[in-house]
Design brief:
mainly beta, dipeptidyl-peptidase activity, Serine_Prot_S9B/DPPIV, Dipeptidylpeptidase IV N-terminal domain-containing protein, Peptidase_S9B_N, AB_hydrolase_fold
């Protein structure tokens, strides 16, 4: 392994966890390091030469291998440890071709087993210790790479996903014991940026669409036996504002390629555009990993160049072609090892 990409403390403070990647970024491991395996950085303190031999080694509790690359996420939540020989955590994986949430329970190695295993674990050996793995979400859509909240008492997991549309981010909730389709909690027709309090009773959302500037609301989540997911709006902290009558919002469109893939685009029209008349056109494409240009969100200062060109009589077209994010592994990895050929025939 070459890269340390994420690290933190387990809730009980007894371990440090770490996500590591190999140089090809196609093999990811989740490590658990006992607190007692660390030594002081103070040079005045004595460090015994046999420290490593006398303390438990790190252990691999989960790992993944991809044929293309690993998209590292911030999704990792350790549940309260009820059995000292097991550890349960929330994990995000693209193993099905789309990023989804899983609850994984892994059997921990004893100290003596860790000493034997400290030179690296094989994938088969790690998988044998997985006692339970539950898929919370599934389907041809993606869960966000970072925004996840857990209410252990009520066995609920809240997350941001693109289930309704790859153009809109929404807040969803799923019950970890009575698995059903995730329930959307935010208003459709907008893309949302959400933050939630620690006990998962309040959330705020800043939402917008191509025709509506950003506005913010506070919501309360009310729990009851009959309807545990009642959402009540408490008020605005950013009031909605109207756009000037001269504003020309971009138009969202979709197009199916000869390959069968559906791509999305955004059209900025010049003022008083007449059907049937030719206009100079500017095409904006990135088509690389971790980037999505076309969304149902307000296009403000970051799209000033597109607005400026359209006001000068140009038609501006933005397209999320194969290679862009939030469309699954196959769609995003289309550019792997063939970027030159891909960009020559990009759509």
């Amino acid at each position: 392994m070459e890269y340390l990409v994420r690290a933190g403390w387990t809730p009980d403070g007894k371990h440090v966890w770490a996500k590591v990647l190999d140089r090809k970024q196609s093999h990811e491991q989740l490590l658990l390091l006992p607190f007692c395996s660390f030594v002081s950085s103070d040079p005045a303190k004595e460090i015994y030469t046999n420290h490593v031999e006398n303390n438990p080694a790190a252990q691999v509790i989960y790992e993944e291998v991809s044929e293309v690359w690993i998209n590292v996420t911030d999704v990792l939540y350790f549940f309260t440890q009820e059995n000292p020989n097991e550890i349960t955590f929330l994990w995000a994986s693209e193993e099905t071709g789309f990023r989804h949430l899983y609850i994984v329970t892994v059997e921990l190695l004893m100290a003596s087993e860790r000493k034997v295993n400290n030179k690296g674990a094989k994938l088969a050996e790690v998988s044998k210790r997985i006692k339970k793995k539950i898929a919370l979400t599934s389907g041809e859509w993606e869960v966000s790479e970072s925004d996840v909240w857990v209410n252990e008492k009520k066995r609920l997991v809240y997350f941001i996903g693109l289930k309704d549309s790859p153009l809109e981010r929404h807040l969803y909730v799923v019950d970890t014991e009575n698995l059903h389709e995730p329930l959307r909690l935010t208003a459709s027709g907008f893309s949302h940026s959400v933050a939630m309090n620690d006990d998962c009773t309040l959330f705020v959302t800043i939402q917008s669409s191509v025709g509506q500037p950003h506005f913010g609301q506070v919501y309360q989540i009310c729990y009851s036996p009959n309807n545990p997911f009642t959402v009540q709006a408490l008020g605005y902290f950013i009031e909605p504002s109207a756009l000037p009558s001269s504003y020309r919002q971009p138009e969202l469109f979709s197009h199916r390629l000869q390959s069968g893939h559906l791509i999305y685009g955004m059209l900025f029209k010049p003022p008083n555009m007449r059907v049937g008349e030719k206009y100079p056109t500017v095409l904006t494409i990135y088509g690389g990993p971790e980037v999505q240009l076309v969304t149902n969100s307000y296009k403000g200062m970051r799209y000033l160049r597109q607005y400026l060109l359209s006001s000068e009589g140009y038609v501006v077209v933005s397209i999320d072609c194969r290679g862009s994010r939030h469309r699954g592994v196959a769609f995003e990895s289309h550019i792997k090892s063939r970027m030159v050929c891909f960009y020559l025939c990009i759509i």
